[in-house]
Amino acid sequence: MEEKSSKKDDIAVMIVLFIIVGVAIGSLAHMMEEKPSQTPVEIHDPTFAEMEIFLHNDKTDENSYINGKYMCKEFSTDLINNAIKQKIRCAFVVIDKVGEIDHAIVAFNTTDQGLIYIEPMSDAILEDPGNVIFIEWWNEDEN
Question: Which pTM value belongs to this model?
């Protein structure tokens, strides 16, 4: 008699396990159906007007300069990260300031006016940034 109730218990446990596994598989399948598209969105070189609109809306230039903590490198990095979020490609640029410490700025390769250098602390366009000693274009897969 004890053996029969043991088999009944085993069958009951197996039925419960089948139900649990079935529910889990059904939930997993449902989650996979609702998963958003993984299609990558590529960044692009902006037009000059698109760059101007981005700079107008971006507030990086309103951040406070803190000597030794939040300087040109941080302004440039924040501006670049914000541009990447808007799918706009740009570059981190270092210029040689003769007799001074090197300076970090940002460049946009606009589709209609070419390479434009920006001072990220003021959003000013730099007509002649000086001696560019380093430039690295940031892509969406590097952010």
Answer: 0.68
